[in-house]
Each structure stands twice: as C-alpha cells, then as structure tokens.
Amino acid sequence: MNLRKKVFLGFMAFIVAPLFVLGTITYLLSQSIIQQNYAEQSEFTLKAVGRNITYVLKEANYFSQASMQREDIQRMLGAKDGVDAVTLTEYDRLLQRTFLSYTPAYSVTLYDFERQSFSQGKIGYRPLSFAELAKLPVFGEVMALNGVPRWIGPHEFENWTGNKPLFTMIRVINDTYTLDNRGILLQQFQFNELNRIFNYFGTSHSNGVRFMIVNQDGLIMVDNKDKLSGQTLSSHIDGSIHLGGEYESGKMKFDGVESIVSVHHLDLDEFGKMNWSVVSVTPWAYLSGRSMQVIQWIGAITILSLLSALLFNMLFVGRIIRFILYIVNSMKKVEIGDLGIRVEANSKDETSALARGFNSLVERISTLLEDVKREQERKNKAELMLMQAQIKPHFLFNTLESINALAAQNEGRKVSRMVQRLGTILRVSFYHKEEIPLSMEIDHVRNYLEIQKYRFEDLFEYEIDVPPALFSTPILKLTLQPLLENSIQHGFEGMESSAVDGDPDRQKGFLWIAAEETEDAVVLWVQDNGAGIPDDVLLRLHGTPGSRSSGSAEAGAPMPEERVGLGIPNVADRLRIHYGSRYGMMICSRPGFGTVIRCTIPKRTTG
Questions:
Q1: Please, which pLDDT band fits residue 595 given cuts at 50, 70 and 90?
Q2: Does the predicted model carry a pTM greater than 0.70?
Q3: Where are the beta strands (DSSP E) in 162-284?
C-alpha cells in the first residue's frame, strides 16, 4: 500500500470515524436524555392532570350523593300511586333545584322499582326508560354495587347513553335511615372543566400535545382535540402500552408521527366503579425541536470542519505526499540507470531543499560513474595492449625461427616468399585500429599458414570456408592466427617426427577455418585433426576467463604453456574484454581426435 492510501486511511480512521462515532453517541445520548427528562416531567404532569380529574369526579359524586339523600327526593321515590300532572310539575322543579343546579350536570333520571321514572335535563337530552336501563350491560353490576356509583364514559355505550361527550353515573339510591333500596339514579355530566385542565397543562393546542382519557379496553372517551373520541388507542399507535399500571411512557409512532406516549392510571376507586387512564401524546419534534437545532448546528459545524480537514489533507498533506512519491519514482529510475532524471520543486519550503539535495546526489553519482567508466576503459585498453604485446613478439619469434631454418637450408626463393608474406602479416599486426574487417583477418591467416607450410613441408593442409557476405564483419585483429599456431605447434607435433622417419602410414595434418552467420552473431570455427588436448589440460583451460570447454576446472588455474601456449588464453581474454560476457570462445577436444574451437563475435559491418 502506497503512502497516499495509508495517509487517507489514517485520516478516515483517526479523524472522520471518531468524529462520526462521537456525533452518533452524542445524538443518541441527547435523545435518551430528552426522552428520560420528558418522561419524568410527563409523569408529574399526568399525575397532576389525574388529580384534577379526580377532583372533578369527586365533586360530581359528592353533589349527587347529597342531592339523592334529600327527604323530598326520598319521598318522590316512595310514592306508590300514580302521580298527577301538578305533582309531576313539582317533581320537575325539584329535580331542577337539586340535581341540575350543579353546573356540569346535563340530565338526571330517577327510577323507582315500580318502573316509574322522573327525568329532567338540558335542551336536547333524551330520557332513558326503565326497560332500556335494564338492558344496559352494566345494569346487573349497578345492582350488585348497591349504592356505589358505576361511571360510564363518553362513547362507551352510545346506543343507550348517546354520542355526546357526557359522563354517565348510575347508582342505586338507598333509604337514608334503613338503607333499603328505593330506586336508581342515572345522571349525566358535561365536564367542560376537563378542557381547561388539558389546556392548562398542555399550554396551548399549537404545541401539538394531546391529552386523552381512555378506558381499560383502550377506547378513547375524551380527546382534548375533539378528533379521536370514540376510536381505539391501539389503532393509532404502532406499539403496545399497558393501561393498568401507575405510569408508563414510551417512544413510538402515533398516527405515523414519532411521539412520546405516556399513560397514567387514575385512582378513582373511592368515587365509584371505573377503570380509566389519562394518556398524553407529545410529538418528538416538539420535544427535541431546540435540541435538534443545536444538534443540527453541531453537525453542520462538524461537517464543515471535516471538509476543512479534507481540503487540508488534499491540498497540503497531499502535495507533500505527491512530492515524496515523485522522489521515490525518481529514485527507482536512478536505480535502473537513468541518471539524467532531475526533480523540480517550485515551492520555497523544505521540499525544495530535498529536491536540490536529490539532484546534487544524482549528479555526483553520474560524475563518479563516468569517472569509473573512463577508468575501466583505460584499464581495458591497457590490458588489450599488453595482450597484443604478448602476441606480436611470440609470433615474430616463431616466424623468424622458421626463416632461419630455411636460410640454413639455402632455400633462398622460399625465404624471399616467406619474408614477403611476413611483411604482409606485419602490416596487419601494426594496423592502427583494434578491429579489422574479417576479410583482412582471413588474408592475414592465409599468409601465416603459407609461411608455416614453407617451414613444415607436407605437415598439414588447410581449407578456408568463409562466405563473402561476412567479409565486412569487424573482428579483433590477430584473433585466428594464435589458434592456428597452437594447432600447428602442439596438435601436429607427432606428425612432424613421423615425416622425418619416413613413416608411410602417418596421417597428414589438416586445418579447417570456417565462418557462419546466426541471428545476432557471427561464429568462427577453427578445427584440426591433431593429437587433441589432454583432459587435465582442458579442465585447467576452462578456468581461463572468457573461454568455455566440455569439462570443468578450478577458476584461475595456471595455463600449461608447454601444451597450449599463450595464444589461446590471450584470444579468450581479448574477446571477453572487448565484446562482453555474451561472446567469447569455446573449446572441444579429445586426445587422438583433434580439437574444435568456436569463436563468437557480434554481427556488425564496418563503416
């Protein structure tokens, strides 16, 4: 992974990720704190609302209790005979003065067990007959309570009590002194005070807080917004909430809006038989409005900070990283040998000093390499001159020895020809260039072999097979002549003595010089049918740099001058130094079967 990716991942892991986690934790904690604080506040509010509702029902219960214990009311229920019109009018006025004098009272109906009923109410009320009363599902429960009120909330039994927001109280009226059952009271109340209570604790309708009174089945009897009365609470929430506990609060959706729903069970057992709870619904947006604004501002500031950090990373840190990567790539180019590379820096900070230092280092390395290269070239040239100096005296000594032998034999014509050929050879040897065309080298070899044939008459024959197309190939001068000299002096050594002894079965020596072309090189062959090279000598010869053979030997082993001479090692070293390790010489030889030498040089043409 490169440096840029590491820095980016580090930026994401150690800056962006912690800020994201911190923001998430802060958001969740703030939500939890808001919910917890509101739950505590909501519990206090709902209990206060419950106490106020309790006071309202308590007042209504006491007023009803006091009214039904009046003697005139008791006498009204004790009448056994029918009531005439005048008495009925007096009873109506009595009901008006007693039960309906209480402001929340909406209607009142008294039943005796003779199935007589006396009712009075505000405009629009519908009296309920005793037969209808007896059909109410709670009638048996009312009789069993024997004087304890049984309250019915709005919309609980709409078929009998109507669909108006009226609270209905049904109770058995007992005799004040004997406690005998004298009749049944059904009284309805319209508690407008509940709206004032809800509005007081809810501050206003505009804040979205909703108060409801529900029964044990979840029926909404009272809704301060007058929209959900008569419906069930479960049809509006996406969760479940327990209505029988003292207090419970939870976060859930109410009509698709995230809200806090809180429930407080009303403790009304001492005022009659009922199982009601007060429910508040507060939209979460209302609770977290200001907090969400603060969180949104914090989020916006955090995002701006992250963008600033990202821009800093891209513009400043990224620029430095790009410059470092630029330096690294330049160093890689230097490693593969491109010393012409230079680093440009347009800034005035430390990167400029680094660029100047890098360029100075590359220039110094380039200078040192040039010095080493020039020194190596001088060294190679000195080695070549030394090797040529070794070859020239050696060849001249052997040739002059041959001429001397002919002169001793009074072979003047042969001496003349040999001197002529020697002059031609010396002109090639003293040529001012290291490389000569292959045609010149072949002409040199041919003159050399003719001189040797004058010296060793009938010792060997030779053949030169070089295609004319290769005549222009450049080759180091004096490459083939030392190899042929070694074959004549050492390979044909026994053949010369046989000729002196007049052995008719002796084998005549033969030299073969050839050249061929490959894809990227020119191969020269020098082959003889002489005595061959012994294995131990061949193995030591393999240790000479630049030469290869069919055997193996210790590197740097001394050459046996008595069998191989200086020619072969010198030629091998010259080829290696001048052409490189890809080119050179290979020797294959076997005692009694001759020697084959292969020289490989680059395929080029002289200019």
A1: very high
A2: no
A3: 167-174, 181-189, 210-215, 220-223, 247-254, 257-265, 276-283
